[in-house]
Amino acid sequence: MESFSFSTSHFSLPSPPPFSSSSSSSSSNRHPPSISFSLNPSPFHSSSANFRRPTKPLKTPSSNPNNKPPSNSNNPLKPNNPFSPPSPNPLTDKLWLTSKLSPPPPTPQPQSIQETRTPKTKDDDNQNQNDVVLDNIDNNNSNTSPPRQPGKIFVGNLPSWVKKPEVFEFFRQFGPISQVILIKGHNETNRNAGFGFVIYDGGETEAESSAMKAVEFDGVEFHGRVLTVKLDDGKRSRDKALERERWLKGDGDGKGEYRSKWHEERDGSRREFQKILETEPENWQAVVSAFERIKKPARKEYGLMVKYYARRGDMHHARQAFESMRARGIEPSSHVFSSLIHAYAVGRDMEEALHCVKKMKEEGIEMTIVTYSIIVGGFARVGNADAADQWFNEAKERLTSLNAIIYGNIIYAHCQTCNMDRAEALVREMEEQGIDAPIDIYHTMMDGYTMIGNEDKCLIVFDRLKECGFSPSVISYGCLINLYTKIGKVSKALEISKMMKMAGIKHNMKTYSMLINGFLKLKDWANAFSIFEDITKDGLKPDLVLYNNIVSAFCGMGNMDRAICIVKQMQKERHRPSTRTFLPIILGFARAGEMRRALEIFDMMRRSGCIPTVHTYNALILGLVEKRQMEKAVRILDEMNLAGISPNERTYTNLMHGYASLGDTEKAFQYFTVMKNVGLEIDVYTYEALLKACCKSGRMQSALAVTKEMSAKKIPRNTFVYNILIDGWARRGDVWEAADLMQQMRNEEVQPDIHTYTSFINACCKAGDMQKATEIIKEMEASGIKPNLKTYTTLIHGWARASLPEKAFRCFEEMKLAGLKPDIAVYHCLMTSLLSRATFAQSYIYSGLLSVCREMIESEMTVDMGTAVHWSRCLRKIERTGGELTEALQKTFPPDWTSHHVDVNSETETADPEIADDDDVYYANGINNNESDDEDSDIDM
């Protein structure tokens, strides 16, 4: 602590004018110019931080024979009591003005006074001197009567919420009250500490009488509390006086201030708080507990707490700490304001961050480059490059110079929006100003080029990084791995991985996750699991993100049980599964049609503490839609609404697809209208479901109206939309409309796929134009598209319908030569068509039917009962009695087949069924179904 220097000229002033008791009130306002440092004239502020005690005790006037001590009657700062003992320090009466606050204490014994005024002059006894002085002060206070104020009582066990008016009204019944003092709590300044004092008014006798009456009510109930009421013993005033005397005396060595026990405890808790911040920042409970142990935290501690919450992105607690600081009367600095703005920036609430900036400017606090960097970085996180540019330009105008941090933030903002030209210009501007780019800016540029898929420039930045003397880190190599996994070059990503290992750099969890994601995109499950094994070999503990990827890999393989085992392993390792963890499992079971197990996982997710999202409900609805259980799907929708989760576009689109599969156009249009009313975005996938419903029910005019609405909203028709429309016209046998749609696809440069060609071939077959169908087959092969099972099945159906069974057999043989294995749909189509048109005279058809039956028997294929009855009736045209074909054909019938299922009355035999009657079975087996594996995204969540 710095000492005060007193010049002799400060004390060599003319003696003050005569002073009398009658003029004491007027002269007390005039401060004698005997001291050069300034003090607050009010005695209540004498403990201000502006006061500094002298290093050494001032000598008393009696110890200096050259100076005559002034008389007490002429000193306005001392009481007019000739028996008043002089203080150990002559400044005591001048600073505290005890004679103005309360009557002087009784005269102590002269021996005690002499002991307190007898200093020792030896330098090696300085410590003993101060110990004796303090001991004598304690003895004086204990021997004399307590300096209590008459009429003052202590009130304890008060409710913490009670205010002064309630206490005043209660104790007023015993006498007039001069003052009510409630002691405030340290942590909650708006509440009392549970005790206080009441001072009664009037004369000394009257006040004391009122106090005695109040004390008689000790133990009275007051707002549910039993009060403690007793006369004030003056201990609080005595402790304060003793603390002041000790503070004036210092710590004994003449160098430092006296530190009370309270101050020592607070300093210890401050040091402990800073230590925990440095050593255990991840243990937020320990940090908060250490902060709460500090009694009356200062601006520094509050600033550190706001900064801690800001780094965690906890903007609500950061604001709470900030407002608590202000409630204690501590004004925030630029650093504290910047920390609060940082909390909102990390929490992506830039609106509130700007509100803090506005408040900061209103209070006249200057914004520093740190503040501007935080704001620019916050807008970069939310992808608002324009706002980031605006604040960056303001920083350039108001600040004399910028640094690499604010440049890095604005470059990151433009890289996130893929504006690499602007990012390159900023890098050039930074270099022209002589600011060296740190390695983080190189990584930011590499990440930006990765987002736009520019491999060449990303490699240029990586090479430049090494040329500038930087050693590539795991982040540098991770940027390249991320680049190659995103553009689908996983093999090159593996080469970068090998380069890392050769450079002695080990993978971290992020680089491993990138590699696994790359293999998952390629559906290369084996390599994805090999990477997972490498992680365990390196001794790394998988995190939540990696576990989620592994769960997705097992679900992609269809191994749902292993995925569930991974979830249980996560829970054992104290990783809390998220909704994203359970979503692929629920979706996998739903797609497999195992809705019972999907609902079990849904319940398991809830028990794990995960709140279902709209995507989770969409997965359940999708599974029920694919099983055509629309009533249960609608119940899931109702459950969503009860849970307060609003359905999105995918929810209603999935339901529309379900009703479209059933041909329920009315329900499909109903949910389409709901989407419009709710204000959800209607995209091409929604229109696909609506068109599918129209075409399935044969309402082609409604389908045309839907396509016109799509054109009005400028929604382009993709391949799937054309497939649905062509299939709709094919069902009606309108080859001209189907051909017109094919021409429109060519004009709009929409590439046909295998489903497009198959649907068009079906239209040609139904129209009987098999020549056109043959041309389409050649066009397909010329485009590099090979016919699949559905295509061959459609052709077989067409040739049989055209009464050309030999070409149907030839097409069947071509299919087998192409390496395709016939399924039940092919056999069903071929046998139904041939049996309905064969006669006993056509021996080659007879032998062909027999060979097909034997193939079905070898493949252990059986048909349903309805098909068996139909085939049995058609068989009577060839064999009136049981024969070889009848025996072979009946082996493909169901096990419970008996001859009484057939109506043997020849007069009731039905006419030859039309091929169109087979369409239900034909399409039920998936022929010409446009929902291919590639269309999974159409009804995705």
UniProtKB/TrEMBL annotation:
InterPro entries reported for this sequence: Nucleotide-bd_a/b_plait_sf, PPR_rpt, RBD_domain_sf, RRM_dom, TPR-like_helical_dom_sf
Gene Ontology molecular function, alphabetical: RNA binding
Keyword check for RNA-binding: yes
Domain spans labelled RRM: 151-234
SUPFAM superfamilies attached to this UniProt entry: HCP-like, RNA-binding domain, RBD
Chain positions covered by the region annotation Disordered: 1-152, 905-941
Family matches, as Pfam families: PPR (PF01535), PPR_1 (PF12854), PPR_2 (PF13041), PPR_3 (PF13812), RRM_1 (PF00076)
Compositional bias (Polar residues): 39-50
Compositionally biased tracts (Acidic residues): 909-921, 931-941
Domain of life: Eukaryota
Key words of the record: Repeat, RNA-binding
PPR repeat ranges, renumbered to this chain: 298-332, 333-367, 403-437, 438-472, 473-507, 508-542, 543-577, 578-612, 613-647, 648-682, 683-717, 718-752, 753-787, 788-822
Record field: compositional bias (Low complexity): 1-13, 20-38, 57-81, 127-143
PANTHER family: OS03G0856100 PROTEIN, PENTACOTRIPEPTIDE-REPEAT REGION OF PRORP DOMAIN-CONTAINING PROTEIN
Family statement: Belongs to the PPR family. P subfamily.
The protein, known as: RRM domain-containing protein
